[in-house]
Amino acid sequence: MSWSGMVEIVWEFAVKDEARGLFELAYGPGGAWSKLFANYPGFRGATVLRDVRNPGRYLTIDVWETESQREQALDEHQVEYSELEMEFEKWTESKTEVGVFRMLSEAAVRPRIKTSSRTSRSKNR
Hints:
Distance between the termini: 52 Å
Radius of gyration: 20 Å
Number of helices: 5
Number of domains: 1
CATH class: Alpha Beta
Largest sheet: 4 strands, antiparallel
Strand content: 25-35%
CATH architecture: 2-Layer Sandwich
Number of strands: 4
Shape: globular
């Protein structure tokens, strides 16, 4: 399946200072959140972003092949999901679903070409 067909669910969290480490572990690689859905068809992973200007603000992005696979996983793991949510609520001041997004295109990052000013001047002579 191409990345363009997948859905990405974006959440914003305001995390209490004393709980930032726990939050990062729970949502990070091998954390409780990923473990809950890791073997479920359609789950492609989760990304955690921390705001560089406001270290208590986080975005999480859950990637699924389809929205219906996500909904099915939530239905089938409702008890475990609810237990995690209750634990996470202790660590956060707020949680907001930003939205469900579908990638329209993928940008490529090109490496910077390093040229010295001497090399550039030499070629121009």
